[in-house]
Design brief:
The strands form four sheets. Strands 5-6-9 form a three-stranded antiparallel sheet. A three-stranded mixed sheet has the order 7-8-10, covered by helices on one side. Strands 1-2 form a two-stranded antiparallel sheet. The chain folds into three domains: 31 residues; 173 residues, no CATH class; 158 residues, no CATH class. α2 packs across α7, α3 crosses α4 and α3 packs across α6. The radius of gyration is 32 Å and the shape is extended. β1 and β2 form a beta hairpin. The chain has nine helices and ten strands. It is an alpha/beta fold. 50% of the residues lie in helices and 21% in strands.
Length: 401
């Protein structure tokens, strides 16, 4: 046998050995659980270090359609004014979470004995979850901002974004906690069968919450358009009793390039530069709440005001630069979105600048200036104290009264 022939035979032998080794590894992985990693939960370990996963911990996902009893029109109404529809808000949170839990349970093919326990287990969490949802929604929803959002066709869309943000924050915690409580597991670990491996959280988010939010967004676009049309025909007059204590004047600018690309290359672009000045007044709506009480024991005149809020906000935008490309990429939506971005930034900066705390301090000085001379003329020992009625806190839940 020549040297060349010996070399070819050696290569064939090496290739054969590699194929045999690969086949052994594939067979071993298929029929063996493999060695136990250091961080593996305390399952039963058989001969050769193989893991025996308890039957009740194994999950096999089956097809199931997501079904919800949450009506889109009801969500739009509730999110437009959560304080007014507080009871409905609580029911919406209950139904939303139950729909998600029910869908995950069906996808995991849980037996009827466990399916019947899902709602009972959720009720253990609903009382504090509805308060967390409500508190977060009220923090994100800018009170008194709906008129501006309607004008820029964003009110309903903004409400859907807020609901999505809050629900996304708590869904995984809730679903994982309820499911791992019902399905016996070792340190919260579930073993899933099948080619596509999902977690209960991902099933709830991807198959339940996201599609529902997408449908709500489509409904919100229609509602925003209808609301903005109605503004042109509305004229409202009302009596107000407001106490403005802080005024903020601000100026911001925004530049944007809108490009048209063909096969990844820019063939036309439009440059937009917009500036805007903002005039904002922060204070108290005394027609919502105003109370004066006398504490004879403590020698105090107690003035109770509503929480401070943005009373008015005027934004005056101006287009400083508009270089339109030959393909004319600019539409009215581009201007509206940019104007609305600036307006939101003004409000965001104001809220983050401790303006409400400053408004309270100015109100206290003003109440003392107005009332103290009159009070001390009657009895010099009395002092003026200002308190605030904190609305929309979780403990002020009509369901608990």
């Amino acid at each position: 046998m020549s040297v060349a022939e010996k070399g070819q035979a050696l290569l064939k032998l090496v290739a054969l050995l590699l194929l045999v080794a690969i086949a052994v590894v594939i067979i071993w992985k298929k029929f063996s659980g493999g060695p136990v990693p250091e961080d593996t939960p305390n399952f039963d370990v058989g001969e050769g270090g193989n893991i025996t996963v308890p039957k009740e911990m194994q999950v096999n996902y089956v097809p199931a359609e997501y079904e919800t009893k949450v009506e889109e029109a009801d969500v739009m109404k509730i999110m437009s004014n959560p304080p007014m529809y507080r009871r409905d808000f609580n029911k919406m949170v209950y139904q939303l979470n139950m729909d998600l839990l029910t869908h995950v349970s069906k996808r995991m093919d849980l037996p009827d004995s466990l399916m019947n326990k899902v709602e009972k287990e959720y009720r253990k969490h609903h009382n504090y979850l509805k308060d967390l949802y409500y508190h977060d929604v009220m923090q994100l929803r800018d009170k008194g901002n709906s008129d501006y959002e309607k004008w820029y066709e964003n009110d309903a869309s903004d409400a859907v974004d807020v609901l999505n943000e809050v629900a996304s924050k708590y869904t995984c915690f809730l679903v994982n906690h309820v499911i791992t409580t019902l399905v016996k597991s070792n340190k919260g670990t579930l073993y899933v069968k099948g080619k596509k491996v999902y977690s209960p959280c991902s099933v709830a988010m991807e198959e339940g919450l996201k599609p529902m939010v997408k449908r709500l967004e489509q409904s919100a676009l229609v509602q925003d358009f209808k609301n903005s049309e109605g503004i042109l025909e509305e004229r409202m007059e009302r009596v107000i009793a407001e106490l403005a204590t802080v005024e903020i004047r601000d100026k911001k600018g925004l530049s944007k390039e809108v490009a048209t690309k063909v096969w990844g290359y820019t063939v036309s672009s439009t440059d937009i530069e917009i500036t805007a000045i903002s005039l904002m007044k922060v204070g108290f709506k005394l027609d919502e709440y105003f109370d004066i009480q006398t504490d004879h024991k403590g020698k105090d005149i107690i003035v109770t005001l509503p929480p401070p809020e943005i009373l008015s906000h005027e934004v005056y935008p101006k287009v400083d630069k508009l270089d339109v490309g030959w393909m004319r990429e600019v539409s009215s939506d581009d201007f509206n979105k940019n104007f609305n971005i600036l307006r939101k930034e003004f409000r965001k900066d104001a809220m983050e600048s401790n303006v409400f705390a400053r408004s309270k301090k100015e109100a206290e000085k003003l109440m003392e200036t107005i009332l103290l001379p009159m009070v001390q003329s009657i009895d010099g020992r009395y002092k003026v104290k200002v308190r605030y009625r904190e609305n929309n806190l979780p403990n002020q839940d009509p369901d608990l009264n």
